[in-house]
Amino acid sequence: MTLSMGIFNEKLDSFGLYCLDLNQVIMTAIRNMLQNNGQIAIEFTTIPIFSALNKAQFHTVLSTATKIDLVAGGVLFRQGQHANHFYFVHDGQMRLSRLAEDGSEKVMDIVHTGQMFAEAVMFMPNRCYPVNAAAIQPSHLVAFDMETFRNILKESVDTCFRLMSTMSQRLHVQLNEIDSLSLHNATYRLAHYLLKSVPENSAGQTEFTLGYPKNILASRLSIQPETFSRIMARLKRENIVVVQGNQIVFHDIPALRKLLSE
Hints:
This protein is an alpha+beta fold and 262 residues long. It has helices at 5-15, 24-36, 38-45, 48-51, 55-62, 146-155, 157-183, 186-195, 214-220, 225-237, 253-258; strands at 66-70, 75-77, 85-91, 93-99, 105-112, 116-117, 132-135, 139-145, 206-209, 241-244, 247-250.
């Protein structure tokens, strides 16, 4: 949906960006986001962890921002590394993963454009990243200083309570996701994921582009690669979907929805 400049300016003004003396990095990032996708720019101003701050606090945090560019496969940080920053994905995709004792990798989350990650680490006792972070595709990030944010919280009880409220809402979403991963079988999890890309009440043919390799998706959904392949083969055999590389064409959406009741 295309947003008019008037609506966008009103949104920015309400958040106090116009009165902030932003550094060049953030100003450039916001200009680029506005040119490429106005919705992303608005999301930047309404990220939960930032929405808890007043204008002066927000300005202080933004003054610590630095830009980071990663090539596909580039590592941002490793599990156990001391944490100094949390991150916003300006453009790209990040894979957050942990290594099991047998050396296998488990994808814990996939972070997309317009999302924040690693912010909760600043509240951990040892301040170490619990996951590895690497770029799935060329990615452009904005890093923010954790210590600056912590100092703001130390100075304002009200800000702490506002932040607790926003983070509690995010925790509720993650608990629902854990339920989905732990209480349902692999077929349900894959069908549920695919259906999230289908417009509500849609019954006709539609297409979906998978934004990352199938092995990453399988790990994210806690599905073994061979099981993932068998489920996809079944969906193709029953003419529910057609897969061409990363392009998925849905032929029978009602049948896909029916899998959720198996």
